[in-house]
Specification:
Layout lengths: L3 E12 L5 E11 L4 E6 L12 H12 L7 H11 L9 H21 L3 H4 L7 E3 L2 E3 L5 H16 L4 E5 L4 H15 L4 E6 L6 H11 L6 E3 L7 H11 L3 E5 L2 H9 L5 E4 L1 H4 L2 H14 L2 E4 L6 H12 L12 H4 L11 E2 L2 E3 L12 H7 L10 H6 L6
Parallel strand pairs: 5-6, 6-7, 7-8, 8-9, 9-10, 10-11
Antiparallel strand pairs: 1-2, 2-3, 4-13, 12-13
Helix pairs in contact: 5-6, 7-8, 9-11
The structure holds D-galactaric acid (GAE) and magnesium ion.
């Protein structure tokens, strides 16, 4: 038996290259045998525009977890899910909180047993996780030029797979997609157009029909959130596979039962960590639906959890999304996760294979905050200045 003796939460603010500053909370769980597990509550900078009270959250989690056996996974899941129930939507701050704790527990179990998280999950079925680099939504003609340059630079670094956010200014979206093909031809693959649930199914279908000749493998979230009939319609009419984010096991069951998707987007931040993600993966396997590992764009601790799960899961056959460590200007670990040839490499263990650098952590530590600015900036992950 290994008992949890303390819960420490450190809020951090880390800027991205795109300008937006994202707030995360770094989790440390101490045990009675002197080990510390680390986790990350990643990216609270999504709507609704509020942050958790870190003092209150620390007291709540301390009361809940102190004295509990690290291996009592069922009991801990019951406590976490009972106290932070799924809100039934994608950007659920309760799920982000559960995720940070769940990741730290997996890290601890790995450290205590001397094995990597991937090994605890049954071992790798692939060497590394192919990932797509995100191109955020075009907000002006200047963005098109800047994003073409970004793609050129990423291509030089070995990324050939891109994911393009659309659904704001559809005229600019189409101009960008066509420019992308004109400039780079078959040297790049467009993994997906991510509509972020901004359009209704009919409008998304019209856009897809208009741009299908550009060539992309997948469309993500091409209907309003929760509109399963809409997703199923896009899937039938648009002749391109559809992916959608999943925020709990029953949502996954509804999506596959309605034949609304070809691919489930399994994001640890949305589900509450590795433990609940395993339930969704079981549903995907039974329904013979493919998966990708999604992201809210985590720092290295959250990204390490994502890659351990991704390399150990057979049905993750679609390029995944976590590239946070390439987007953020700093991190809190001694050695960040690494990418090579467009793939994310799983750190070697034990646990997540990550170690906090106390100086780096202190450099970015501070109360979570919101900059004044338009709501669309938050949705587009663009920073308030643009
Ligand atoms: O980069 C971000 O923060 C994005 O908003 C991210 O959370 C989502 O867009 C996600 C997605 O696939 O929709 O990556
Ligand atoms: Mg998405």
């Amino acid at each position: 038996m290994t008992r949890i003796t303390a819960v420490r939460l450190t809020p951090v603010n880390v800027a991205r290259t795109t300008g937006v500053v994202c707030g995360h909370v770094i989790v440390e769980l101490d045990t009675d045998d002197g080990q510390t597990g680390i986790g990350e509550m990643s990216d609270f900078q999504h709507l609704p525009r509020f942050h958790p009270d870190i003092g209150d959250l620390t007291s709540t989690l301390t009361a809940m977890l102190t004295g509990i056996d690290l291996w009592a996974a069922n009991q801990i899941s019951g406590l976490l899910e009972g106290s932070f129930p799924s809100s039934g939507s994608l950007y659920d701050k309760g799920a982000v909180i559960r995720c940070g704790i769940d990741i730290a527990l997996w890290d601890l179990r790995g450290k205590v047993s001397g094995r990597s998280v991937g090994s605890l999950l049954g071992g790798a079925v692939r060497n590394a996780l192919p990932v797509a680099y995100p191109i955020f939504r075009q907000r002006s003609a200047a963005d098109i030029e800047a994003n073409l340059e970004l793609v050129a630079n990423r291509l030089d670094e070995g990324f050939t797979m891109f994911r393009v956010y659309v659904g704001g200014d559809l005229g600019l979206d189409e101009l960008f997609l066509r420019a992308l093909r004109d400039h780079f031809g078959d040297r790049i693959e467009i993994k997906s157009l991510d509509f972020s649930n901004l359009l209704d199914a009919a409008a998304a279908t019209r856009f897809i029909e208009r741009t299908l000749d550009v060539g992309y493998a997948l469309v993500e979230a091409p209907a309003h959130e929760g509109d399963l009939d809409g997703l199923a319609q896009v899937r039938r009419r648009a002749l391109v596979p559809v992916s959608e984010h999943v925020y709990d096991a029953s949502a996954a069951l509804r999506l596959v039962s309605a034949r609304a998707v070809d691919v489930l987007n399994v994001g640890l931040f949305a589900l509450g960590g590795i433990t609940p993600a395993l339930r969704v993966i079981a549903i995907a396997e039974a329904a013979q639906v493919e998966c990708l590992i999604g992201t809210t764009q985590e720092l290295s601790i959250g990204t390490a959890a994502a890659v351990h799960l991704g390399v150990a899961t057979e049905c993750v056959t679609i390029a995944s999304d976590p590239v946070g460590p390439l987007l953020y200007r700093s991190d809190v670990v001694a050695a960040p996760v690494t990418y090579s040839g467009g793939e994310l490499l799983a750190p070697t263990g034990p646990g997540l294979g990550m170690e906090i650098d106390p100086e780096r952590l202190q450099e970015v530590a501070g109360p979570l905050r919101w900059d004044a600015g338009a709501t669309t900036s938050i949705i587009d992950r663009a920073g308030t200045s643009s």
